[in-house]
Amino acid sequence: MGCGKTTLCRALHDATGIKVEDLDELIEERAGCSIRQFWAKHGEQQFRELEEETLRRIAQSPDEMVVACGGGTPCFGRNMEIMNKEGRTVWLNASHDVLLSRLIQAREQRPLIAAMNDEQLSRFITDELTRRTPYYSQAHHTFDSGNMETTEQIRQTTAQFIERFLTR
């Protein structure tokens, strides 16, 4: 959350025309409801099963694409193994301070953190990074996504990403 997946994916598509898929959006399409509604009705276990099934389906696509997955996706089931086997994985890494700044600005749009004060949000970020880093670190590559605050920075970061991962 806050690492810049949506911003970078949008910019990658605009710059290259490459197909971009958001795993959460695909899950919502398959479920016929929002992730929040699905989770409330069926629970986390069924959500994670649907997530893995959707990930497997997308991994079998013959199309070249960039897939943005939810921050928890690599941490459950065989998801990281599937992603590493079927594609090139990139951990978008931003510092705690960058994540905190971005999430403070976007807090109202993110139900999970909307009620947190700045101190709680900071602890939440620290705890989640601690818990998730062992999974994220299994990605083939790490990319610094911490410099995407202005249009020019987004352009530069996108160009760096394209050069590093999409021109080979």
Describe this entry's structure for a reader:
This protein has one domain: 3-Layer(aba) Sandwich (Rossmann fold), CATH 3.40.50.300. 60% of the residues lie in helices and 10% in strands. The longest helix is centred in the N-terminal third of the chain and has 25 residues, at 35-59. The strands form 2 sheets. A two-stranded parallel sheet has the order 1-2. The chain has a two-stranded parallel ribbon with strand order 3-4. By secondary structure, the protein is mainly alpha-helical. It has 7 helices and 4 strands.
Radius of gyration, CA atoms, in whole angstroms: 16 Å
- CATH-level-4 superfamily name: P-loop containing nucleotide triphosphate hydrolases
Count of separate DSSP helical elements = 7
Low-confidence stretches: none
Order of helices and strands: HEHHEHEHHEH
CATH architecture: 3-Layer(aba) Sandwich
List the helices and strands and how they pair.
Blueprint: H1 5-16, E1 19-22, H2 23-31, H3 35-59, E2 65-68, H4 79-86, E3 90-93, H5 96-106, H6 118-136, E4 141-144, H7 151-166
Parallel strand pairs: 1-2, 3-4
